[in-house]
Amino acid sequence: MNGHSLRWPAGMLLAGLLAGCVPPIYVDKQDYPADWSAQLTAVAGCPELTGRYQNQGEGRFAVGLAKQLMPDTADPLKQVQRVDFDGPDGGAVVVRLLDAQDVILLEQRWNEGPDFRCEDGWLIRQRGYFWATPVLTGTDSERFARDAHGDLLVQRRTEAGGVFLFLPVYRGERFWFRYPRIAQ
User: Fold this and answer.
1) Per the domain annotation, does 59 fall within a domain?
2) 106 in a domain, yes or no?
3) Mean pLDDT across the stretch 141-146?
4) In this predicted structure, what is the pLDDT of residue 158?
5) What is the mean pLDDT of residues 145-171?
6) Higher pLDDT residue, 7 or 110?
7) Coil, strand, or helix at residue 76?
8) Quick check: is 12 in a domain?
9) Domain that holds residue 166
10) Residue 10 placed within a domain
11) What 3-state DSSP class applies to 165?
12) Can you tell me the distance from the alpha carbon of 124 to that of 109, in angstroms, rounded to the nearest whole number?
């Protein structure tokens, strides 16, 4: 074997090992919209979410609040006009989906621990873990708080990471939604 025949495999091995030192790549991060009212300053524990909000949201990709909260529920979502939050109170949040006449279409209780946690003034619901590809695993979550006007803020986060051909790979998406508060 001459020196040239060893350079190619040695160079590939070195490139592969050094590629593992490259920082992961962040794909899509949507910043908090500048034209929205200020977020409330972070507090320890859970944010107060009690109130009634419009189902139709505002944001780059507006999605109904009911669809965010209960994605696997299909039929009643078409009729939802408003969403009530009670809590968190005593380690629980009660969410009610209401039609135009304020009839409760669906009610759900979330318990702190199995259904949500609170961190830096956000109520966080982990929607689950998933395999994005054979080499990437990820999480899907929603974070809830209110802005200075009392409107409900939702930050949807999807993050996935793994290693592919010695390269660390990271993909993240963050989308903001705002649901106007309805005075009662």
Assistant:
1) yes
2) yes
3) 91
4) 79
5) 82
6) 110
7) helix
8) no
9) 24-182
10) no
11) coil
12) 14
Confidence of residue 52 (pLDDT cuts 50, 70, 90): very high
The pLDDT mean for the chain works out to 79
Model-level pTM? 0.76
Q: What is the DSSP string of 39-70?
A: BPPP-SSPPP--EEEESS-BSTT---HHHHH-
Helix (H, G, I), strand (E, B) or coil at 151: coil
DSSP-based three-state secondary structure for 149: coil
Average pLDDT rounded to a whole number, residues 120-145: 78
Long-range contacts of residues 31-39, Cβ cutoff 8 Å, at least 24 apart: 32/176, 33/59, 33/60, 33/176, 33/178, 36/147, 36/176, 36/178, 37/147, 37/148, 37/149, 37/151, 38/147, 38/148, 39/145, 39/147, 39/148, 39/153
Closest to 68 in 3D by CA, of 57, 52, 84? 57
Q: How many structural domains are present in the chain? A: 1
Query: Listing from the earlier edge strand, what are the strands of the sheet with 122-133?
Result: 117-119, 122-133, 136-146, 152-164, 167-179
| Element spanning 116, H or E | none
